Amino acid sequence: MAPGAFNALVARAVARAGFEATYISGGATANVAGYPDIGLITLTEMTRTIREIATAGGVPVIVDADTGYGEEEMVVRTTIEYERAGAAAMHIEDQVFPKRCGHLDGKSLVDAETMEIKVRAAATHRESPDFIIIARTDARSVTSFDDAVHRANRYRDAGADVIFPEGLTSEDEFARFAAASPGLLLANMTEFGKTPSISASRFAELGYQIVIYPLSMMRLAMGHVARGLASLHEHGTVDAVLGEMQTRAELYDLLDYVPGELWTFGDRPGA
Predict the structure, then answer these.
(1) Residue 231 to residue 240: CA distance in whole angstroms
(2) What percent of the chain has pLDDT over 70?
(3) Rounded mean pLDDT of 110-120?
(4) How high is the pLDDT of residue 52?
(5) Do you find a cis peptide bond into 98, omega within 30 degrees of 0?
(6) Count of the separate structural domains present in the chain
(7) Cα separation of 8 and 49, whole Å?
(8) Residue 258 falls inside a structural domain
(9) Active-site hit among 136, 154, 156, 268
């Protein structure tokens, strides 16, 4: 399980909670900057976020690279920049730029050959063989389930270590996909989308090794922010929601900070 961390403090909380990996969503990174998930975040902005989250959490970070920020040359640069920033893995997708959230309709795909070129470029130019290349296909909701499987297997042959089938709609589809595309698989468990709620243990039974939760923590946080603001606006104080807040002591504990003592960057929950 790799919960999404939309900033370094959340990354520390993910590691403190005992998770062995975290995830950086391009959509969440765009949202917290005030943008929709349509590819507006730059490579520079993403690498800054990777550095902050990888440094703070101390656990492996899986990172969204959208469509690779361009064609083959940019995919090569993205791979190198992500790896040097501290990512353990990245995924690229076969959508046309500007991309759309994977659980929205109206997406368009590049042809499979174009995506193969991108996957091969990433796999060939990573600096360490331990850096994981994940290929995402959005074909299920654009063309067909069978095309998604066909593309996935082509992407594996091009060098992808893991396949990420986006927008599957049932446990049966996840099981059939795993059977038809043997190898390492990633599942996206996002709320309010095309995929029903499936537990991590069930995903394991269906043949998936990684489950990401891209926006879960951001949605929880923003739900509380909206309710807190409404309460403050109504009452003129936050007393009504004080019990829902993280206390100062809890924040300091999460940061491994003791006032008056030296704090260092080495104090990471997952290090």
Answers:
(1) 7
(2) 96
(3) 97
(4) 96
(5) yes
(6) 1
(7) 8
(8) no
(9) 136
For the chain, percent of residues with pLDDT exceeding 90 = 88
Q: 248: exposed, middle or buried (C-beta count within 10 Å: 0-12, 13-18, 19+)?
A: exposed
Helix, strand, coil shares of the chain as percentages rounded to 5? 45, 15, 40
Distance CA 234, CA 231 (A): 5
Spatial separation of the C-alpha atoms in residues 79 and 91, rounded to whole Å = 10
User: Which is the catalytic residue, given 91, 100, 103, 156?
Assistant: 91
Residue 93 CA, chain-centre distance (Å), reads: 12
Q: Which of 7, 31, 37, 161 is catalytic?
A: 37
Question: 188, 208, 213, 268: which one is catalytic?
Answer: 188
Please name the amino acid found at residue 196: P
Residue 64 belongs to domain spanning: 2-214
Residue 240's Cβ-count burial label (10 Å; 0-12, 13-18, 19+) is middle
Active-site residue flag, 45: no
Residue 138 lies in a domain: yes
- Count Cα atoms within 13 angstroms, Cβ side, for 45: 18
> Which tokens in the block code for residue 242?
């004080």
- The tens digit of pLDDT for each residue in 117-164 reads 999 999 999 999 999 999 999 999 899 999 999 999 999 999 999 999
Look up the pTM and report it.
Answer: 0.94
Residue 8 lies in a domain: yes
